[in-house]
Design a protein that fits this description.
One of its GO terms (biological process) is transmembrane transport. By secondary structure, the chain is mainly alpha-helical. Helix content is 75%, strand content 0%. The two termini are 44 Å apart.
């Protein structure tokens, strides 16, 4: 009987810290959750709901929307050649991000992931473009690619040819945007891969080398499989980010020449907000939001599910 009482007392003593911890978590949630919910509702839920309503009106942003047009904004958007070009450009950003930017980031990460002073310097250099503000990056590259001054002007003068304006050429303007995007964001993905590579057990790499695996074999059969979760997350960030490209394009090309370098978001800004077509812009935003949500949901279900 005494043994039973002792066991009950010890169990009660163990449960007390658990109850205190649970009560502390509940108290923290009650204190911190309401302000977060209020902010999230005001700055996310409310604007999303408003956009969903305004998308069915021809509204300029002033007063109360009264001119209900139904699905006309969506029909106009789908039939607009510039919007179709913007969608194609956004798909190009996704393709270049997956086929150029991420492989480049992975190769560089494999080269400099070891902790050495030299590699620290290289990481800083490669990561600096990502720290730079998007607007600043676009402005810097617009100066570089200008035919009157900058690097392109120096090259054309050295070759003795007429000035060439890359961002004014319909055939090359969006290629210039893609180059800047790769330069701007590859360092972010590189750091994700470096963090994952540093977590790969060294004994696995040594075991593979003892078994006769080459450097490429270690990368292919040991390191890449071990950092697969990081690659999956990196691809997700890349795709969602590609759908939201805006800040780089505006200072670099402003969607030109002749609206050939618009992405979906710059199209929304130019043909919706800038022209006070808030209803039309809201319709574009609704389509973009639904697309991003569907991509996120399906990608997580296909690639980010925890194994059973």
């Amino acid at each position: 009987m005494a043994a039973v009482n002792t066991h009950a007392e010890s169990s009660s003593a163990i449960d007390k810290p658990r109850r205190k911890s649970m009560n502390g978590r509940v108290a923290a949630a009650l204190v911190l959750l309401p302000p977060a919910l209020v902010l999230f509702t005001l700055f996310v839920i409310y604007p999303l709901a408003g956009s969903g309503i305004y998308a069915f009106y021809d509204w300029n942003g002033y007063g109360t929307p009264t001119d209900f047009v139904g699905l006309q904004n969506f029909e106009r958007m789908m039939g607009h050649a510039v919007f179709q070009q913007a969608v194609m450009n956004s798909l190009k950003v996704i393709a270049v991000s997956l086929l150029v930017q991420l492989p480049l980031a992975l190769v560089l990460a494999l080269m400099i992931y070891r902790r050495t002073p030299e590699n620290t310097i290289f990481r800083l250099v490669f990561f600096l473009p990502y720290i730079l503000a998007e607007i600043a990056a676009g402005l810097i590259w617009s100066f570089i690619m200008d035919g009157n001054f900058g690097v392109v002007a120096d090259i054309t003068r050295a070759l003795g040819i007429d000035p060439y304006f890359i961002t004014s050429d319909r055939s090359w303007a969006f290629t210039a945007v893609l180059v800047v995007i790769v330069w701007k964001y590859f360092g972010f993905h590189m750091m994700i891969y470096i963090a994952a590579l540093q977590g790969v057990p060294k004994d696995m790499i040594e075991a593979a080398r003892i078994e006769g695996a080459s450097r490429l074999g270690v990368v292919r059969y040991v390191q890449i499989p071990m950092i697969k979760p990081a690659i999956v997350v990196s691809v997700f960030f890349s795709v969602i980010g590609a759908l939201q490209v805006f800040d780089v394009v505006i200072p670099l090309t402003n969607g030109g020449p002749a609206n050939s370098s618009h992405t979906i978001v710059t199209y929304l800004y130019t043909f919706g907000l800038a022209r006070l077509k808030i209803g039309y812009g809201s319709a574009i935003g609704v389509v973009l939001f639904i697309t991003a949500v569907l991509v996120a949901v399906f990608y997580q279900r296909l690639f980010m599910r925890k194994p059973a």
